[in-house]
Amino acid sequence: MSDSTVSPTVKSRWPRRRRMMAWSIVVILVAAMALPLTGYVYVAIGDAFAQQQTGANSSADRQTNPRANYWRAVREGYQGYTAASGPYTTDVLIQNGGQNWRQLRDGRVYSYNTWVLAFVVAAIFVFVIVRGRVKLDHPRSGRTVERWSTGERVLHWYTAVLFIILAITGLSMLFGRAVLIPLLGYPGFAAWATASIAMHNYLGPFFVVGIVIEIVVWIRDALPEATDSQWLRQAGGFFGKGSHPSAGRINAGEKYVTFWLGLVLCGVIVSVTGIAMDFPAFNESRETMQTANLIHSFFAISWLALMLGHIYLGAWGVEGAWEGMWSGRTSVEWAKQHHDVWYEREGRKTEAAGPKPSGASAQRS
Q: Where are the beta strands (DSSP E) in 140-263?
C-alpha cells in the first residue's frame, strides 16, 4: 500500500496510538521513581518553618532520633506509664517475639525478596537481549476484533493503578531503610514512610475489592483447555522457530502463572493478611500480626515478581498486546497468531474494518 492511497487522518492514527502507549509507560516509570522523592518537599518545608519560628540555622538538633532518648530512659530505669489495655499489651515492656519477627523480616525474608526481584529483572533483561520483541508474523490488514469490553478494561486499570501504588509504598517500607535513607536522609525518609504507610493502609481494601471482582469475572476464561498442554510444552512459542501454539481467550501462561498462581494464590493471601493487619477486629495477638506481616511480605514480593513479567510482555514484549487492553480491540493478525482458538470461536464475530497502518508497518512481513 502506498502512502498516497491513505488519508492524512488514517496515516497519523497509528503513530499517535504508539505515542500514547509509550508516554503511558514513561509516566508510570517516572511516578515510581518520583513518589519517594516527595520526602524532600516535606523536609524543606519543615526546615523553613522551624527556622522562621526559632531562628535556628541548621536542622542538626531536629535530626536526633526521639526513640533514642526513650530507650536511654528505659536503660536508666525510669518509671513509665501505659494506658494500653488488652491481654497482649500490658505488663511486658519488650516483647521477645518482636525481636524474632525483626530478625526474620530483616534476615531471611529480606534476602528472599531481594534475590527474587533481582532474578526476575535479570531474566527479563536477558529475554530482551536474546529474544527481543515478539513481533507479528504478518502485516496488519486494518481489520480488528474486540478483545476486552469497556468494563473489563476499567476493572483491569483500576486494579493495575492500585497495584503499582501499593507496590511502590510496600517496597519503600520493606527496603526503605537500606535504600532510601542514604538518598533522602532520615527526615526525608520519615516523611515518605509516613505517607507510604497511610496510602498502603487506606488503598489496600479498595485493591482487595478489585482482586475479588477480577477473579469472579475471569475465572471462566482461566479454566483448563485441551490446548494448554501443548502451549506449555512449546513455552508459548517464545523460543525456537515454528508456529505459535494454539490458545483460547487466555493462554496457558496467563492462566496458570498470572491468574491462578498470581491473582488467586498470591492475591488472596496478600489480601487476607493485609486485611488482618489493617483491621485487627478479632483482637489478634501481636504474634499473629507479626506472622501475617511476614506472610504478606513473602507473597507480595512473589506476586510482584510474577507481574513484572506480565507487565513487560503486555506493555512492550509482545507486539499488539497493549492495544487490546488500551483500546479494547486488537488486529486480526494478532488474534490469529496468539489466540487462534478464541478468534475462531468468539473473536471473528466482532471483526470489523479499521484504519490500515501506513508506511513501514504496512509493508513489513
A: 143-146
What is the layout of strands, in order, in the sheet containing 329-331? 329-331, 143-146, 352-353
Q: How many CA atoms lie within 13 A of 345 on its CB side?
A: 10
Distances (CA, A) of 101 to 1, 106, 299: 66, 8, 16
Residue 96 contacts residue 297 (beta carbons within 8 Å)? no
Q: What are phi and psi of 55, to 5 degrees?
A: 75, 15
The winner for highest mean pLDDT among 53-62, 122-131, 257-266 is 257-266
Which pLDDT band holds residue 81 (cuts at 50, 70, 90)? low
Q: What whole-number distance in Å separates Cα of residue 39 and Cα of residue 190?
A: 8
Say which amino acid occupies 363. Answer: Q
d(CA 92, CA 95): 6
Could you tell me where the beta strands, DSSP code E, fall in the chain? 143-146, 329-331, 352-353
* The C-alpha cell that represents 130 in the structure block: 536474546
Say if residues 313 and 131 touch (Cβ distance below 8 Å). no
Sign of the dihedral defined by the CA atoms of residues 273, 278, 281, 287, in that order = positive
Backbone phi, psi, residue 364, to 5°: -70, 140
- Whether pLDDT at 15 is above 90: no
Residue 217 three-state SS: helix
pLDDT for 85: 58
What is the 3-state secondary structure of 257-296?
HHHHHHHHHHHHHHHHHHHHHHCCCCCCCHHHHHHHHHHH
Provide the CA 111 distance to its chain's centre, in angstroms.
20
- Cross-strand pairs, 132: none
Helix or strand run (H / E) with residue 352: strand 352-353
